[in-house]
Amino acid sequence: MSNPTPTPNDLEAYWMPFTANRQFKAAPRLFVAAKDMHYTTHDGRQVLDGTAGLWCCNAGHGRRPIVEAIQKQAAEMDYAPSFQMGHPGPFELANRLVELSPADLNHVFFTNSGSESVDTALKIALAYHKAKGEGSRTKFIGREKGYHGVGFGGISVGGLGTVRKQFASQLPGADHLPFFYNRATMGFSKGEPQTGAEAADALESLVTLHDASTIAAVIVEPMVGSAGVYVTPKGYLKRLREICDKHGILLIFDEVITGFGRLGSAFAATHYGVQPDLITTAKGLNSGTVPMGAVFAHDRIHDAIVNGAPENSIELFHGYTYTAHPLAVAAGLAALKLYKDEDLFKRAADLAPYWQEAIHSFKDAPHVVDIRNTGLVGGIELEPRPGKPGTRAYDAFVKAYAKGLLVRTTGEVIALSPPLIISKAQIDELFSILRDVLKDTP
Ligand code: PXG
């Protein structure tokens, strides 16, 4: 399939997200079709998907069971209101989801994106403390380099300067844990760095600074995704859990990337054996096919808010027109079934050692200064060009696209997170293209 190359005029009206619009429109990269592990470009080339779209198409592309479920649902019932009305799908989907979630996180609030999941979780945390008579707990603690989407809540707890700096107005009192990663001691770790858990102790200092009675929740990515793939040190999350427990602070894991098999388990929480109070998800929930997110809440939180209100009163003043949209729900049910039928989370776990060896074979490739991996995720960090930060990785991304491989770059890091259906031969192909790309990138 080949489409005519669009002219700059055709591209003007669409204001693209997180994109250098003028640079892109001068040399557009467009996908027009997708199947399994590949995209087709507008000029008819096949591109191997090294990033599961944007970390979301965990079952691969164009999977028949999901496609058919969406088609069937669209024909049967396009939309149903979700306030004071329902349809059977989300009840069923929530039941399937809590079979996968860690023990006691048995309630699911649906959203339409990761950003909405984050803001929903922050609001649930506030509502929980209020319901318990601790309304003074209003502050949130995130972490430097954290990415929690683009809502005002998410950018307030987020720790990426670039995502925050254009927007002055943020949640009052949000503070941040220091970043835990130290390349000198943790560089080239295979999987979890074995040292560095004590970085979590900084939470004690923040609690002392703010006083526990003012802090509602701590939110972290169990594995740092967007900022460049940084795996938390062994024991770090457990320490955060202990400190939160000691001070009555809720712990939120933002699993928008790590949820639904990326690390080889349904959730990073189960993978690392640390139970948060709330989990935010999106992306892989329905394999990226229809916008959808979900927040998983501990029974204690749900019950405090829901059972604490009079029976005829709305308990949580929150929700979206498209909460539990029938198409998203149908896609979710089909994706979860596909994950199960093909045992895709286990497949990711089984492939992880092969993936690890493949990525670490880049240690001697040109420009490489660090390599990080866990599950089916990898980050290759390049030496920045003097005075031109980020340009080398960006050039590598453009070259990779030309050579038939989709990667993501963030700063100096090439991030990889293929669909969980990738084969060993495709892993070899991916890294072989990338090796050529790095050789060709000055
Ligand atoms: N939390 C986390 C941990 C995320 O990774 C969001 C929240 C926001 O999700 P939405 O659906 O509102 O975009 C994300 C999103 C990248 C990349 O390449 C990462 C995300 C989105 C787009 C690109 O690193 N993460």
Question: Could you characterize the architecture of this molecule?
Answer:
With 442 residues, this protein is of the alpha/beta class. It has 2 domains: 8-59 and 343-440, Aspartate Aminotransferase, domain 1 (Alpha-Beta Complex); 68-341, Aspartate Aminotransferase, domain 2 (3-Layer(aba) Sandwich), CATH 3.40.640. The protein has helices at residues 8-11, 21-26, 52-55, 64-76, 88-100, 114-131, 152-157, 161-164, 183-186, 202-210, 236-247, 268-272, 299-306, 326-341, 344-360, 391-402, 424-440, and strands spanning 31-35, 38-41, 46-49, 107-111, 139-143, 175-177, 215-220, 223-224, 230-231, 250-254, 278-281, 293-297, 368-374, 377-382, 405-406, 408-410, 413-416. It has a 7-stranded mixed β-sheet, sandwiched between helices. α4 runs antiparallel to α14 (326-341). The longest helix is centred in the first third of the chain and has 18 residues, at 114-131. The model has no long low-confidence stretch (mean pLDDT 97). Bound molecules: 3-[O-phosphonopyridoxyl]--amino-benzoic acid. Residues 54-55, 113-115, 118, 147-149, 221, 225-226, 254, 256-257, 282, 408, 410 line the site of 3-[O-phosphonopyridoxyl]--amino-benzoic acid. 3-[O-phosphonopyridoxyl]--amino-benzoic acid (PXG) binds at residues 54-55, 113-115, 118, 147-149, 221, 225-226, 254, 256-257, 282, 408, 410.
